[in-house]
Amino acid sequence: MSAQTTARHRVVVIGSGFGGLFAVKKLAHEDVDVTLVSRTVHHLFQPLLYQVATGILSEGEIAPATREILRGQPNARVLLGDVLDVDVEARTVTFAGEGTTTTLPYDSLVVAAGAGQSYFGNDHFAEFAPGMKTVDDALELRGRIFTAFERAELASTPEEVARALTFVVVGAGPTGVEMAGQIAELANRTLRGEFRSIAPSTSRILLLDAADRVLPPFHPDLSRDTQDRLRQMGVDVRLKTRVTDLDGTGLTVVTPDGATKRIESETIMWAAGVEANPLGRLVAARTGAETDRAGRVVVAPDTSVPGFPEVFVVGDLMSLDKLPGVAQVAIQSGQHAARTIAARVAGRPVPGAFRYKDKGSMATISRFAAVAQVGRIRLTGFVAWAAWLFVHLLYLIGFKNRVTTLLHWAISFVGRGRTQRAVTKQQIVARTVIDRAEKSAGDQREHDVSGTVRA
Amino acid sequence: MSAQTTARHRVVVIGSGFGGLFAVKKLAHEDVDVTLVSRTVHHLFQPLLYQVATGILSEGEIAPATREILRGQPNARVLLGDVLDVDVEARTVTFAGEGTTTTLPYDSLVVAAGAGQSYFGNDHFAEFAPGMKTVDDALELRGRIFTAFERAELASTPEEVARALTFVVVGAGPTGVEMAGQIAELANRTLRGEFRSIAPSTSRILLLDAADRVLPPFHPDLSRDTQDRLRQMGVDVRLKTRVTDLDGTGLTVVTPDGATKRIESETIMWAAGVEANPLGRLVAARTGAETDRAGRVVVAPDTSVPGFPEVFVVGDLMSLDKLPGVAQVAIQSGQHAARTIAARVAGRPVPGAFRYKDKGSMATISRFAAVAQVGRIRLTGFVAWAAWLFVHLLYLIGFKNRVTTLLHWAISFVGRGRTQRAVTKQQIVARTVIDRAEKSAGDQREHDVSGTVRA
């Protein structure tokens, strides 16, 4: 790998999600050399992951290759790797990719490694209830959802059919609402007529949350509208309900009146919590910064780490002003960090504190129905859904992805089809495999880099 | 699962590829009940698998859900399952799917289980050199191909770069030629400008075959045209070259002059041989039929098993008249078996011997170049390529798949993009996982069904 000229200011960006990518792009015309390090080859458009999980879109459309996106930015390069360590004194980042370990020097560092699913300490839930944060998650869920119907068709007793056709979504934020709505559409519309022994519309779809309403970040009117629509679609919404245990045959919950109840289900998805990437704790340990309860790094108002003005933490990994871990926060904070770096390099006044511009929130419920709020404006129904489509198309990177996504939406929303129903062996065995592979890679890493790995 | 009325003739079809699917469809208006048993939920359009492996198409477009295809055929039902045994005396099929074991009675049976990759006895090659017969294969290859370029970008020595950028395709039939051509296009065109340390066009792409020309089933003029084009694209075509060993760092070959040579490569794909699904040997063992060297069942002229006129073997699993394992043979033999069954049920004269109508062969080499032959007519270049596109679109099942495939072709062939470059953890760890999962499932099966499993 060629060395970069030391004359130019070197920026290293960790992560190829919204925060990292938009930080890199914001530096396109600045006198800096940018290296983006990511553990995926692709930039993931998370808001549409649920459409991969339910067969509307292929993973390719929401996960374009990062280096293809940045091809036209000469001062940027992309390297595949998993960050092992950050040395904030020597100003280097060490990462491992494809069997190679590399140490990169930086003048400025933007840590945008994001967040993963949180099981609130019950990590063993993950094997039975995939989250919705990565392409692997979505593909695994897709396999489980579609084979659940196959299982029901093969079942010989009504109890087996019922258990196979019971779907549970834990977490009634936008992701959970979207998944529940889509499974209801699969059951009631898409799969109708395809089976001979079962009626897919007899599926039970449960949406659970410990909160007292769905979509807690939204205005209560929109929560109510969403809940009504979900119920009309046959989704059983259970609020003030807490999950205490979970395994391959179902879950145990505590109901609003305090009773313990068992729900039998073989297809459970977890959309209930997020926790920061472990890099958050690493950066905090190295810099003395604090982390919040989710592991996010508490930053200064300009998104830099207190005492380390050249190190920035943005997006889902950042804890600032109680900002939520949503796409707009990641985009804007990433851009803010980049503008700050650029200003310093050019000798311009720095932008100062990061001021988040809330451009609103949206969540889709079903075909032709969504909720959206921007300031005091609230939209529901078809208008909200059209707005949702428009905004998501706008932010989807890549012209060709937009075209194919539009086409798939026409197919799935106007038509009734799903073009992505292939189920591979990879998907079914994914969870245990990935865990096993990651564990042995982690053990190996501990062995290799014992001196520099964080405590 | 509901029992079917015993009044109607019951047809069981094993396999959802070309042979099985077209057999089922041919029986749509007959007085029979058809059950299609398949171990995948999808019908796989194999000829376009190489486009999944190289990022042009998503797996969904070439693998639509079988039960969606057959939704409108009331006398057909689809069940997911892996066939464990066929009892030709009792006329039952036993299969396991999603934890359930089912035994189905039949009046007629069509075995269309297809073929898999053959490593000519060297099954350990499979871990390092995926084949091209399933969606899992294609996705795994896609992951390996795209991460090979990532590895090269990270490499620190020229030797590492060279090894990462050496791609070997074993087998110069249509599949191998198509793969080699596509990787050359990736290296020379698609990925150009996306890397900073390497030039993808410096990739070495080798296409090996023990035969003395590429595309052996084609006319020698077309073989020569293909070889010329491949060489112009920078593909190193090595004929009369036999692979004797293969591992994670390369392969050992015997060159035309008898010398042994080592080729260093970390990305090897195997398109060199096919062997019949093990169900072929099972059926042969149960019926006393013979199998050929590839494990295919030698059938009577009407595709039935000698001595068992109600059992048919079609497609890649069938050995008849030296017919090759190509899509048209599978389609036509599947339809012939169905017509024979239908005639008997209706009391009509049976069609008699299966007469294959050779509708020609085609193989694509690169963008705008293919070869095609129909009888004495031979086409090359752009005309052949246009014909190839047209024919494949025609046979791709599902209107929406055709539309999205056309769109992706426009993107990849007119434009230079690939919309499907996502690499997931599932893909990378797939091979060892699937093997391990299949092995434990196989062991479990041996344990469960010890009395009925074939020798």
Overview in brief:
2 copies of one chain form a homodimer. The first copy, chain A, has helices spanning 18-26, 49-53, 59-62, 66-69, 135-154, 158-164, 174-190, 220-232, 279-287, 327-346, 381-395, 399-414, 425-448, and strands spanning 9-14, 32-38, 76-80, 82-87, 92-97, 100-105, 108-111, 115-117, 166-170, 204-208, 235-238, 242-247, 250-254, 260-264, 267-270, 274-276, 297-298, 304-305, 308-313, 318-319, 361-366, 369-374, 377-380.
Largest interface: A-B, 73 and 74 residues
In DSSP terms, counting alpha (H) and pi (I) runs of 4 or more, how many helices of chain A? 13
Mass-distribution shape of chain A: globular
Q: What class do helices, strands and sheet pairing of chain A give?
A: alpha/beta
Mind describing the biggest β-sheet of chain A?
6 strands, mixed
Mind telling me the C-alpha Rg of chain A?
Answer: 23 Å
What does the model show?
The structure is a homodimer of 455-residue chains. With 455 residues, chain A is of the alpha/beta class. The first copy, chain A, has two domains: 9-39 and 81-117 and 275-358, FAD/NAD(P)-binding domain (3-Layer(bba) Sandwich); 123-272 and 360-423, FAD/NAD(P)-binding domain (3-Layer(bba) Sandwich), CATH 3.50.50. Chain A contains 13 helices and 23 strands. The first copy, chain A, has helices at 18-26, 49-53, 59-62, 66-69, 135-154, 158-164, 174-190, 220-232, 279-287, 327-346, 381-395, 399-414, 425-448, and strands at residues 9-14, 32-38, 76-80, 82-87, 92-97, 100-105, 108-111, 115-117, 166-170, 204-208, 235-238, 242-247, 250-254, 260-264, 267-270, 274-276, 297-298, 304-305, 308-313, 318-319, 361-366, 369-374, 377-380. In chain A, the strands form seven sheets. In chain A, strands 3-2-1-7-19-18 form a six-stranded mixed β-sheet, with helices on both faces. A four-stranded parallel β-sheet of chain A has the order 11-10-9-15. A three-stranded antiparallel β-sheet of chain A has the order 4-5-6. In chain A, helix 5 (135-154) packs antiparallel against helix 6. The relative contact order of chain A is 0.15. The interface between A and B is large, with 73 and 74 residues. Chains A, B: Belongs to the NADH dehydrogenase family. Chains A, B: Keywords: FAD, Flavoprotein, Membrane, NAD, Oxidoreductase, Transmembrane, Transmembrane helix. Chains A, B: One of its GO terms (molecular function) is oxidoreductase activity. Chains A, B: The chain crosses the membrane at residues 382-399. Chains A, B: It catalyses: a quinone + NADH + H(+) = a quinol + NAD(+).
